[in-house]
TrEMBL record:
<comment type="subunit">
    <text>Homodimer. The monomeric form is inactive while the homodimer is active.</text>
</comment>
<keyword id="KW-0732">Signal</keyword>
<feature type="domain" description="Peptidase M28">
    <location>
        <begin position="260"/>
        <end position="454"/>
    </location>
</feature>
<dbReference type="GO" id="GO:0005576">
    <property type="term" value="C:extracellular region"/>
</dbReference>
<dbReference type="InterPro" id="IPR007484">
    <property type="entry name" value="Peptidase_M28"/>
</dbReference>
<dbReference type="GO" id="GO:0004180">
    <property type="term" value="F:carboxypeptidase activity"/>
</dbReference>
<keyword id="KW-0865">Zymogen</keyword>
<keyword id="KW-0645">Protease</keyword>
<protein>
    <recommendedName>
        <fullName>Carboxypeptidase Q</fullName>
    </recommendedName>
</protein>
<dbReference type="GO" id="GO:0046872">
    <property type="term" value="F:metal ion binding"/>
</dbReference>
<keyword id="KW-0378">Hydrolase</keyword>
<dbReference type="InterPro" id="IPR039866">
    <property type="entry name" value="CPQ"/>
</dbReference>
<dbReference type="GO" id="GO:0070573">
    <property type="term" value="F:metallodipeptidase activity"/>
</dbReference>
<dbReference type="GO" id="GO:0006508">
    <property type="term" value="P:proteolysis"/>
</dbReference>
<keyword id="KW-0862">Zinc</keyword>
<keyword id="KW-0333">Golgi apparatus</keyword>
<dbReference type="GO" id="GO:0005764">
    <property type="term" value="C:lysosome"/>
</dbReference>
Amino acid sequence: MSRRLLAASALALAFAAAPFAASAQDEATIRQAELLRDKAMTSNVALDYVTQLTTRFGPRPAGSHSEQAAAAWAADYLKGLGFQNVHIQEFPLVGWERGQDSGSILGDNPQPLAVAALGHSPATPEGGIEAEVVRFTSLEALQAVPDGSLAGKIALVDVGQMHAMQDGSGYGPQTRIRGAGPDVAAKKGAAAFLIRSVGSDENRLPHTGTTRYVDGKVAIPGFAVSAPDADQIARLMDLGQTVRVRLSSTAHVYETHSQNVIADIPGRTRPNEVIVLGSHMDSWDLGTGAIDDGAGGAITIAAAKAIAESGQRPERTIRVILYGSEEVAQPTNTGNGGGAYAREQGGKVADHIIAGESDFGADRVYAFALPPGAQGTAFQRIVTRVLYPIGVLTSARPETEGGADVGPLAEAGVPVFGLKQDGTRYFDLHHTANDTLDKIDPAQLNQNVAAWTALVWLIANSNVEFRSAMPKPAAQ
């Protein structure tokens, strides 16, 4: 055995023997966490919720009637599970409807293209846009061409297939192109913007997603094209052909509202100390939003319900929030559920001791991350002890962002935690017509519920003050 292995073995033995510095009450709390964890592995609450949500309402675009109806139903569902203080918080929104979209290659041998208009992209003129495609292999290459040089053409940015990674880190470098691309293309004179779908699959299904407002508008129509069709365009160009395409969209925006659904399991001894469990209600219109993010709501609701029905109320309040309008951009910064909730709380944000978000599908949790300052603490070791038996390890990195919905709370100083899910196949399905209930594995869904239940129980019944444990900003 090498010295490195001997040292690792010694460290493991030392860790296993290390005292948890826990009182008898702490040991009872730990044992209860283990019992809750094991019971959650056979729960049917999460699967029931996501099944009913996606079956009753289908897709739930932000601000749509289906999102609003789903929120009203979810409020009643939570009341039926015994949650208290259930209410709906509305906020104004600019909604977007896709209408009809289509694409095709023109010429002597016309071919259909599988495309999807990008969220909040404007419609094309009636009859569509017909133009030559100019292909770029990076956003920077598009940015480098002279302004006006693409007049009357369609700018295609194709950086190649997204890499599937467990932590989903391949997504960010490509989704920035989807957000920024239409404005950059417009400055170069392009009539429309086209992007290879931001996804890790090879299905002939386009991945939609929102683009970005710049100075209160989206300048030109934008579309995602499926990976096989992006490859087809590239091959035609490699053969020396000029590729002309027709893109058509009847999308439009409208004034509406979205909403957050908020429900509590009140704390027994410290009800003013709030733990937020977040997910989002809205989805894209192509599928039924099962993995993005019906599953997240299912997981957090089931975890809180498991704690509530255990016969032992948590000391701190557990608050489940089903946020509205996570998926879409807005002309101003007011139309998102996370921001709306944080603004309404005002000074009460100081009562929020920690927040977490489930928004990465339904596949298994493989790691947990606590806020900065909690690394190496007795509390972290207790969590490791409880979650290791279901395959959840300690993350080497603290959690600092939390996700799009709880992000505004994090910006306001609320510590955040993360339960890291296996995202290897998430971006095969994300924002496509394939985001449907059959993609959820019930056993993996319940492993999520078990991890959330145990961790939240331990947080709710601890004396850990995550804010005070966080490192203070360096003096200027």
